[in-house]
Amino acid sequence: MGVVVTRISDPFYAQLVSTVEQSAQERDLLVLVASAGDDPAEGERVLRRMLGRRLDGLIVVAHEEADLSFLQAEIDAGTRVVFVDRPPRGLHADLIAIDNERGAADAVAHLVQAGHRSIACIAHTSGRFTSERRQAGFRQGVRDAGLPARPELIVAVDDDVDVCVEALAELSSLDDPPTALFTTNSRTTKAVLKALRLLDAHPALVGFDDFDLAELMRPPVTTIAQDPWAIGEAAAGLLFDRIAGLEGPERRITLGTRLIVRGSGELPPG
């Protein structure tokens, strides 16, 4: 079987792949792993090369801009495919997803519980599917808390620290600046933490996605964590069911997140 992710160097995907490999070894299956990167054209090329290996099945984290309609012929011919994290463009297929909206809303609720009434969302630009849904969850959390909708408090950035410094400086210049931040993935969280250090700023912060150094920061970083092991087990289990003959329409399995309280999300307004 094959596994294609965007970045095997990403600890989240590395753990997911490890889980899939363990499940496959229990069934005496060999796992071929490839990184597709952030280029949709390269992602398509990687998938086509992987399919040339005569696979029993395939687990894919696809680039959201890649047109994967070519996979329909492979699926019709009997290749089982399960997507993870985001739905494929151009075809209907099994999907293991995360409740991004609920996780983001939970982050807002946690910050509100700590006393914050002005909360900014620092959203990643790469990976539009997850970013948009986490922004939607942020807005829902704001509404649930009875806070006013303030579009100026939602800022999209890449992972460049200088860009984050500029964005945070602009937020701090508002008449009612944010006292807390919600960041929408681990790479953005890390860039924002570096920017905050440069600015000598200390807002409360909750980040979506846990990361290895979160508990070593000062203060340790409160996160909304996905479980890559559970995601990998769900993806592998669904794929093995399909390989074993499970028929029927495509399935969408949505897994929850959990709040890991460490300190940064519990700081009161300054």
Description:
By secondary structure, this protein is of the alpha/beta class. The protein is 39% helix and 19% strand. It has helices at 11-25, 40-51, 71-76, 100-113, 128-144, 161-172, 186-199, 228-243, and strands spanning 2-5, 32-35, 57-60, 80-84, 94-98, 119-124, 154-157, 180-183, 204-208, 222-225, 252-255, 258-260. The protein has a 6-stranded parallel sheet, with helices on both faces. The chain has a 6-stranded mixed sheet with strand order 7-6-8-9-10-12, sandwiched between helices. Helix 4 packs across helix 5 (128-144) and helix 6 packs across helix 7. The chain is elongated and about 60 Å long. The termini are far apart. 42% of the residues are buried.
